[in-house]
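Contributing: when you submit paired examples, paste them exactly as shown. First protein:
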Amino acid sequence: MSSPEALKDLRRLTALLVITWLLHTYPLIAVGAGNTYKWMRNVSLLVPAVTSTGNGYSGVVSNLTVAVAWPGTGTVYVSADPLAELDIQAAARIAALVASLIAGYDYESFDFFVRIKADSPIVGGPSASAAMAVAFLAAFRGKNIPPNFSMTGMVEPDTTIGPVGGVPEKLLAVAKAGVKEFVVPLGQRLALSLNTGRKVDVKVLGANRGVKVVEASTILEAYRAATGDKELLKHLQASSVSETPYPAWLLNSLRDSISVFKKRAKENIECSLSYTSKLPPDYRRQVEGIVEKAEERMSEAGEMLGKGMYYSAASRYFSAAIMSSRACLLAKTLSSSSLSEVTEEIRRMIREANHTVAFSETLLRAKLREASGLTDVKLQLAIVALGRIKDAKRALHEASSILEALESGRIPPTLDTLARLIDTVVYAYYRSLTADQWLKLFKRADTGSPIPIERLKRGVSSYVYLAYSEASYARSLGLIDREADTSIEEAKDVLAKTNTILDYITALTDSIQGYARYAALMRTAFSGEEGQKAVVAGLKTLINLVKLHGITPLLPMMYSEYGSTIDDVKTRIEIYTQAASYALLLGFLSKASQKPLLEPTVHGRSVKEGAAPVTITVKEERTLTTTVPVKITVTETHVSTREVTTTSPVTVTTTTTMWETRAPDPIVLTLVVVVALIVLAIAVKASGRGTAPPQAF
C-alpha cells in the first residue's frame, strides 16, 4: 500500500505532467488518480440553485454527491457540470473544514469529494455549501439523507447557516422535484423573490405545495433535520467545556491597561474643562459634549469591570481616553491665539506614534522569523498586535497628509479640518500604545501548543478564497461594500508575494476583515435579528469545539465578550464573525484525533475491532459530460461494483475521476478543463480602519 506522502507526491507529479501536456495539446481531460482508502462513505441529496433566464430567474434542482475518504491529505476535489465559478470550490473547502471540526476529525487526514450535476448553469455556488457540510457530516457519521429532503444556505466559519438569495424560486423548484422537507436559513422564512423584489412567506408557499419548510440556524440543526440523528448534538452537549476564564497573565495585563487608560481619561477630562471657561458658548458646548461621551464610556467600563468583562472594560477605558484627549486638544486649539503651539504638540504625537509603530512592526517581524517557537497563543497575540499596528499606520498616514496640506496652504484651517486632524492624530497615538502593549504580551507568552506552519499557510489560503467567495456571492445579489473589497484585494496581493509568517498573518487578518464585513452585510440584509441569534449560538458552539481540542481560543473569547457590548447589530455581527473565523482557524491548526468522537461507522454499518466480518457492496456510477467550444462532446461513464469482506478497518480501493481543485500546494483553486486547464489564483485584499465606536482595545 502506498504511503500518504507517496500518494501526495504522485498527485503532484500527475498534475505537473497533465499541465505540461495541456500546454501542447489542449484536449479535454480529467485528472485520474488511483488511491487506496481504508474508509470511504458517499452521501447524496438534492440541492436547489438559481439559473438566469431570458425572463428573469428560476429555480433549478441539482444533484449533490459528496464522499469522505481516509486516509487522505485534506485535498478537496470538486466536479461541477455545467462548469462552475470558483466560489463553489472555496465553499466546499470551508464545508469540509466545518464538518471535520464538528465530527471531531483531523481535517487533513481525509480527502473530500464533491459532485454537483445540474441541467443548466447555476448562479451562486456558496448557497449549496451548507448542504455540503451537512452531507460531509452525514458521511462521517455513517448516516443517509432521504431523497425527499433538500436545503439551501451558506456554511459560515461559526458553523451557522448564512442567508442566501432566491429562496422562493428554489422552493418552487424542489417542490416540483418531489421534495417534502426543505431547510432554509433562520430568518429567511420571509424571503425576497429575485423576480419581484417582494417578500414571500416560504413556509406558506411550501405548505401550498406539500413541502414542509424548516428554519435552521446551524449545521448541526440542519444535520439533525436531514438525518434524524440526535446523538451527535447530545454528545457535544455532554462534552461541553465550562466557560474558561482568561489566563492569569492576560488578566493582569488587562488590569494594567485599565489602570493606564482610566488615569489618562481622567487627566484629559481635567485638561478639557480647564479650557472651556475661555471658549465662546458654541465651542464650549462642543467640547463639553465630547467630555460627556468620554464620561459615559468610563461609566460603562466600570459596569463591565464589575461583571468580570475585562477586555470590554479595557476597550471602554481606551475609548474614553481617546475621546477625552480629543476634547483636550480641541479645547487648546480653540482657545489659542496661535496654532503653532498646537501643531507642535500634534507633530510630537505623530513622531512618538511613528517611532512606536515602526519599532513594534520591526520587532514583530523579527520574532516571527523564529517559526519553531510559534504557538497557538503567540499566533493569537501576533494577530492582535498586527491589527493595532496596521490601524495606527493608516491613521498616521491620514494625519500626516492633513497636516502637510494645512501647512502648505492647500486647505484652509477650518474647524472641521482641525477637528479631523485632531481625531486622526489622537487615534493613531493611542492605537500605537495598544500595539506596543500587545507586542509585549506576545514576547512574554510562553504557553500554548506549537503551530504547524505549513497548516497555517494552507489555512490562510482557504480564508482568502472564502472571503472572495462571500464577496462574489454578495455582489451577485446587489450587496457591495467597497471597504471590504479593498481588504480582500489587499489580502490577495499579500498572499501572492508572501515570504514570511508575518505576510501570511497580514493576509489572514485582511481577508477575515473583508469576509466579516460582507457576512454582516448579508445577515442584516436578509435575516436581521434572527441572523444575529444564529451567529451568537454558532460562535458559542465553535468556541466549545475548539476547547475540546485542547486550545484556549483567547482572541475569539475576547471578541465574543466585546461583541456582546455593542448596540449596532451589523457591527456586532461583524465582530462575532471575526471571532468565529479565528476560532475555526485554531480548530484547523489543532491536531485532532483521526478517529471520530463517536463510534465509527462505514456505509451505515458499525465497525468495531474484533467484530464479525462485514460484507459491503460499493457501487459508484457517474457520468461526466462536457462540451468544448469546438463542438465536440465527450461523455465518460464509470460504473463499478465491488464486494469487500473485512472487520476493521475496511479497505476500499477506488479509482476516482473528477476535476481536481487543488492547485500548487497549499492553495485551493479550480482546475477547470475546457480546451485548456486554467489555474486561477484568486485571492483577496484588506483594510479600512473599521473601528466603529467604541473602539476595541
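Second protein:
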Amino acid sequence: MKLTMVARSLRVHSTLTKIIGLSQVRFFQPDFTTRDPNSKPKIHKYPPFYDPYGPKPSPSDKIIELAERIVTLPPNERCQIGPTLSERLRHPK
C-alpha cells in the first residue's frame, strides 16, 4: 500500500515538473556584501533622558512592613520562607 502511494506521488511530481517547468525554481542569492567576520556589531544605546517605563513607584506600606517582619525572624525560620514562597508562586491564583 505504501509503495503505491510513493509511486503515485512520484508520477504526479514528474508530470507537474513537465507542466510548470523550471520557472518555479528559486535560489537564495544575497544582494548584500559580506562584512568583516572580525568586526564587532554596533551597540545602540538609549539617551539618558529616555525612560520607556517611567519612574518606578515606591513600594507600598504592606511590602515594607512584610520586609521588616522577615528581617526580625530568626535565621532558621527565614530559611523556610524561600521554598514555601516558591511553591506558592508555582500555583495559579
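If you have annotations for the second protein, write them as plain sentences, like these:
The CA atoms of residues 44 and 50 lie 13 Å apart.
The first helix runs from residue 2 to 20.
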